[in-house]
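Changelog-adjacent note: as of this version, every example in the card shows the full chain rather than a window. The one below runs 377 residues end to end.
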Amino acid sequence: MLCIEIGSQIAKVYFISYTKRKSQIDAYFQFDTPEDIVYDGAICNAVVFSRLLEDNMKKNCMILNSKLSNKKFTFFKNLTLEKLQKSAYKDMAFLVHSTKIIAKNDTIVSTRNANNRKTKQEIIKSFPVNKKMYSVFVEQDRKKLDKEEKKNGEKPYSLTAVPKKILEECNEVSRKLNLRFAGINVVENMYDSDFARRYKNITIIDIGMKKTVFIDVKNKEIVKKKVIMQGISEVVNSLIKHEVFGEYDEGSCCRILEKIKRRDCLNHGTDGEYEEDYKDLVIRKIQLLINEIQDVLKELNFDKREDRKIFITGVGSKMCGIEKFMSKILEADVKSVHEGVLYIEEGKLMDLEGDEKTPVIKNIHSNTSFVRTLLFG
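Full-length structure tokens:
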């Protein structure tokens, strides 16, 4: 499968092979997505996006699976769209970051579970969103209910409202590349009840370019989940504008992201011979996000916990020095986990199917979906 993570300023592409038991990322590349091509997670120009993907695939593909056969190794080293179309990577799925996507978990009083067609229709009908512009997906949630909720006959569900334009343009990109459109998922949905059961006890912050997801899990249950409309885009744009890493280049997001992996832009006294005046500017740009995170931690009485460990992931977690900076500000043990890795595991992809274009959440290749792999240690 070809998996594309669409952010506000960069796109990441993963080549994934899988069996019934596990999945493996074989290769990867990323490229800048200018605002006239991708805006807030929505592809504005499928033709140009497809061309950018094809061009970068030829020259920027990096092999991640060291156990690849010689045949596959050669395949990625000399990759073309024609070769891709004839390969096993025929399905194309998208992981979308967008402030326009709405995701929520709730319960409904019903004698039927949330996967029942009538129950879904009832939930969708009552959800206040323009159905002409949005596709609304409902799925039964496997969250544990307390005694009171069970007594009231409540049924848990998860709801995701996705702009139809996002679905249509992702489908169009697949069509332009002559690949099969498998569906989409959104970053908020990766941190669900399945995630909670898998990691049992964890506090994690997924820092994107324009959006951050905070989730706190205790005893396999989600205690707190919040989407914060702040990320590191202002930091990156500020570094570009003030030419911290060299001459101003409007389309240099990928280059800046690579630079800040190696050079500490946050902690004073860590930059050696470089001037540090710009660090105060960077800190001001990220302070709104830090303030929001502090408010959430305060709600959770995080400072009273014995184990004050926080994991960070997402593109923001790759900033050199961010662990030290956040550990000091949040008074916690902050560790980053492998960012940008997509894993195919228990779950679903969203698509529009049927003559009436009914929103459905479907399984492909048994049980599959996008889930970020968290590599600890």
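Structural remarks: Residues 277-299 form the longest helix (23 residues).
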